Every structure is written in structure tokens, then in C-alpha cells.
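testing teh design pipeline on a random one, pls ignore if ur not involved
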């Protein structure tokens, strides 16, 4: 594992601070919520002193620390502004207020929970995954973090999780004319996307998994336009936001994965990030066992943030982003593993009004990788070998923690 100081120095070589530090000033609207930086609150960034490293590296280090502070402020603002719908779990991560999700609980332990004041909201089987989830309402006088601890004592053999929220990993900046698309490789293999809803004519099938869904929004529309620009002709889109203030929650994403799996989708792209969650981890594992490849963004919380999920779950293809000069985005987050980089800045997509937008973020690198995987599978190839053969080695020779196994879709520019 490399130190943060090493990461800061490497970032200087890969991405000059002046060119990449500023995040876009016009974030895409997704739901009625702000678009926060996600993950459990962490302590001070380690490696704050960079002995022997030039001032440019110190500037990068300050920006990395600034991203971490921004993340904490965003979480606090989100919780403050949405008290009726959202609260922090015991890790400090945002979740749906007053509800816990339970796996592997029998009737005896559920009755014990009921005696302790918990109420069963529903006991659901997620289609396509053979997975049962019980939703419990927390006692009125009990905060979510406390309720997790209490319930864990009552049912020690069960898996208990808050219904954690996940957020988009990219923004649109300004409208812009786009260059002609290059790097498109047509395939009619269906690709699934879990996001906000794109406009209906951009996808083959569209289903909602949240209150008010499907509700077209810019982020999902941009992701769908990138899939289309990459040659994907069949897109199944799941909207996990709609108008729900607690949209993007783990249960909605798990249900969306179930629908896509049941429909025969073998490649799913997820440009969302959140904390580790037992329910979502189980859903992804079940889908993978059925042959589904999950591709996910590492997020834009910066390298000082905790590992992003779902990119960090076992077997998920974790994707980071570079700009048009093949420099790593300084705000790119990290995962417990990293597979590939793809263009995530100086590219273009369409918003919900069909207008071209300049895009930035690991959100937009992710569908490009998913499209490459779908094409390889359609051609009967081992997709890992196909991507490795295409990947341009950047940074340190061989696989590394900044670019993974290399840059794919290097010529991709996005929507026309």
C-alpha cells in the first residue's frame, strides 16, 4: 500500500494542480438533495508533512485534504437539511431515517426484535437474486446508530445494515460543442445502468425503484448518452432516485440489480458511491454468481477518502478517470482495488434536455468501460483479456494504484 504522501507526489506528475483542482461549478441536479461527497466520516488525513517534496506537491496535498474536509461538510449539511428523511448510521454515513435492513433473521429473532420495539415494515424477496430482506422500523425514541447496536445484540447471527444512500460520482460543467465521437464499437448486447433516469427515448427499458421514479435527470441522461456513443444499442435503465429525498438507497439499488439480473443483463454500470453495506454487497455477490459483471466508479472524494463502494466489493470492476491529456483526476477517489482508467474529463454527454454538456468525474469513465466489456462478451471473447490488450499503460510500469491496469477507450470523446 502506498502512502498518501506518495499519492500526492504522483499526482503532481500525473495532473498539475492548476489544471485539475477546481471541481465543476454547476453540479448536475439528481434529486431534491444536494450532491454530497460520500463515505463514513474519517479522521485527519495522514501524511500531512511532505519532507523533501517540492511546493507543487504540497499544494496538491492541501487540495486532497480540502476534498476530505468538503466531504465532511457535505455530509453534515445533507443531514441538517433533510432531518425528516435522512440520518447518520453508526459509521456516520447518511441513510434512510428510522429503518434498518436485516438478512438471515429467523422468526424467533424477529419476534425478539418486535418485543424490543422494532416493527416489521416488510419482508421482501428480491426478484432475480433469491435474496430475502426484512425492513424494520426503529423505535420512535431511538436514533438509527443506537438501534443498529441494539439490534445486533438481539440477533447476533443476522446481517444488519442501515439503508445507506449512494450518490453520483460526476458533474456537468457547461454546455459545449462536442467533437466527433471516436472509439465507438457497436454492440446489441444489453447493458444495464443503475442511476437517475435518462430520458425515455435514450433507453430500451426503464424501470423505477424509488418514489416518483422514473424521473429523468441529467446524470442518468449523461451516462446513457455515453453508452450510446460507445456503440451500445440496448440499454436497460433503473432509476433509484425518482423524487425520493432518500433516493439512491442500498435497498433500491439491490432491487435494481435483481431486476437487471432477472432480465438477462450480463453487464451493469453503476456510477454511484456510498459506504459498505451488507445488503448491497449480498445483492452484488448474488448477481455475480449468475454471471453478471458489475462495473462501478471509484468516486470523486479524493484519495484521502475511505474506499468507495460498490467499486470496492469483491469482483466489481473499479474504474477511475483521466482527462484529455491522460492525467489522473485529482479528485478521483479510491477503491480496495482498481481495474481500469477511462476518459472522465474533456468528454461530452447529453443532459435530460438533450443538450451537450462537458462532463467531469469518474461517473463518466465507468460506462465507457462497461461498453467495452459488453462488446467483448458479444464477440465471445474473454473480456478481461480484451480490455488488457487495449489498455494503455500509464504511470508506473504495469498495474498500479492510480491507473489500475491501464487506460481503455482512450479515443472516446462522448456524445456527438
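output:
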Amino acid at each position: 500500500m502506498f502512502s498518501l504522501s506518495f499519492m500526492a507526489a504522483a499526482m503532481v506528475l500525473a495532473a498539475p494542480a492548476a489544471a485539475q483542482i477546481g471541481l465543476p461549478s454547476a453540479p448536475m441536479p439528481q434529486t431534491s438533495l444536494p450532491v454530497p461527497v460520500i463515505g463514513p466520516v474519517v479522521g485527519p488525513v495522514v501524511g500531512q508533512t511532505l519532507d523533501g517534496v517540492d511546493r507543487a506537491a504540497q499544494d496538491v496535498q492541501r487540495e486532497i485534504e480540502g476534498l476530505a474536509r468538503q466531504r465532511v461538510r457535505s455530509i453534515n449539511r445533507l443531514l441538517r437539511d433533510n432531518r425528516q428523511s435522512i440520518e447518520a448510521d453508526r459509521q456516520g454515513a447518511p441513510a434512510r431515517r428510522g429503518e434498518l435492513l436485516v438478512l438471515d433473521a429467523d422468526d424467533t429473532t424477529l419476534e425478539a426484535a418486535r418485543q424490543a420495539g422494532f416493527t416489521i415494515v416488510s419482508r421482501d424477496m428480491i426478484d432475480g437474486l433469491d435474496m430475502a430482506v426484512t425492513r424494520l422500523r426503529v423505535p420512535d425514541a431511538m436514533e438509527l446508530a443506537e438501534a443498529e447496536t441494539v439490534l445486533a445484540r438481539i440477533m447476533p447471527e443476522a446481517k444488519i445494515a442501515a439503508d445507506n444512500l449512494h450518490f453520483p460520482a460526476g458533474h456537468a460543467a457547461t454546455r459545449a460543442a462536442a467533437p466527433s465521437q471516436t472509439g465507438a464499437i457497436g454492440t446489441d448486447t444489453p447493458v444495464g445502468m443503475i442511476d437517475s433516469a435518462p430520458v425515455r427515448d435514450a433507453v430500451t427499458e426503464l424501470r423505477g425503484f424509488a418514489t416518483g421514479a422514473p424521473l429523468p435527470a441529467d446524470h442518468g441522461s449523461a451516462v446513457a448518452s455515453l453508452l450510446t456513443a460507445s456503440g451500445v444499442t440496448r440499454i436497460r435503465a433503473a432509476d433509484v432516485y425518482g423524487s425520493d429525498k432518500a433516493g439512491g438507497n442500498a435497498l433500491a439499488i439491490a432491487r435494481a440489480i435483481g431486476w437487471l439480473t432477472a432480465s438477462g443483463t450480463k453487464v451493469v454500470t453503476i456510477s454511484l458511491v456510498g459506504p459498505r453495506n451488507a445488503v448491497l454487497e449480498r445483492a452484488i455477490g448474488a448477481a455475480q454468481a449468475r454471471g453478471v459483471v458489475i462495473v462501478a466508479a471509484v468516486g470523486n472524494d479524493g484519495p484521502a477518502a475511505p474506499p468507495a463502494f460498490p467499486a470496492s466489493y469483491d469482483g466489481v470492476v473499479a474504474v477511475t478517470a483521466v482527462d484529455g491529456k491522460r492525467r489522473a483526476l485529482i479528485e478521483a477517489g479510491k477503491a480496495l482495488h482498481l481495474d481500469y482508467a477511462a476518459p472522465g474529463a474533456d468528454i461530452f454527454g447529453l443532459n435530460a434536455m438533450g443538450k451537450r454538456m462537458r462532463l467531469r468525474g469518474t461517473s463518466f469513465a465507468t460506462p465507457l468501460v462497461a461498453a467495452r466489456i459488453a462488446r467483448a462478451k458479444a464477440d465471445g471473447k474473454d473480456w478481461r483479456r480484451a480490455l488488457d490488450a487495449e489498455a494503455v499503460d500509464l504511470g508506473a510500469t504495469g498495474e498500479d494504484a492510480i491507473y489500475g491496469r491501464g487506460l481503455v477507450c482512450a479515443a472516446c470523446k462522448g456524445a456527438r
